[in-house]
Input
Amino acid sequence: MAPRRASRNPRANAYEQISLFDAPKAPEAPQPRVTPNPAARAGSRRIMSEELADAIQLAKDGDDFDLLPYQPTPSINPPRPRTLAAGYDKDSQTLRVRFRNGQVYGYYNVPPNVWRNFKRVKSPGRAVNRTLNNFPYAPEHDLDSPTGVN
Output
């Protein structure tokens, strides 16, 4: 059965003036909001290269130079630098930073030009606050190295 069209006659009864298209619709069920895990998202899109896997394993064993080759990072406060080392994986676009307390954070979907600029700044700690914190990031606890310094 075809829906009735609304009448153009102003004297038509109320039934004829209501169209099925004008009828109130049932409210839609709210869709759940999915917040993706940036660490899982970055790792699931790409296959990890063998070099990166080796560098991560070495870092877990205590030698993080292959994973974080930019060390020591410069500081405007040399007695108490905020960052100790950093490294970038161009395949997964992940920039990793080791902080003074030994924690390593991965910043995901970071373009190569941000990494180049990061290496040029006088204060990587400020660059983290101003630039890197705008990208998805997560701690990488399996790479942490306790230093005893806070």
Q: What stands out?
A: The CA atoms of residues 59 and 143 lie 6 Å apart. The helical segments are 14-17, 38-45, 50-60, 112-120, 124-130. The longest helix spans residues 50-60. Strands lie at 83-89, 94-99, 104-107, 137-139.
